[in-house]
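The record is kept unedited without comment:

——
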Amino acid sequence: VQLQAYGGGLVQPGGSLRLSCTGSGFTLADYGIGWFRQAPGKEREEVTCISSSADRKYYVDSVEGRFTISRDVAKNMVYLQMNNLKPEDPAVYHCATEVLDCRGLHNAFGSRGQGTLVTVSS
């Protein structure tokens, strides 16, 4: 089970990015999927998750209303749409399988892969 996040980049404050998560050799829809971020000198923070059935989604307060998680089952993808990016959002963003199938933001992950770097700067 291996996941890969991509789509990061450099954006100005207020800008948008869409991150994508793909799975190699397994079906993402069989798992709850979470996105977490880690910035230098800061602890890992789970920002959002979506349950395997997509009937549960959670967001950390700091991204509520700006970030949206979604699935495309046919494409075996999970996306993180990030709008109105702020100076506090830069980090390496990772996607990972959820140990608890997104029953809240528990920062508990199974498989994960390399992340993608998001930079916000004017």
User: Anything to note?
Assistant: The radius of gyration is 13 Å. The CA atoms of residues 53 and 103 lie 12 Å apart.
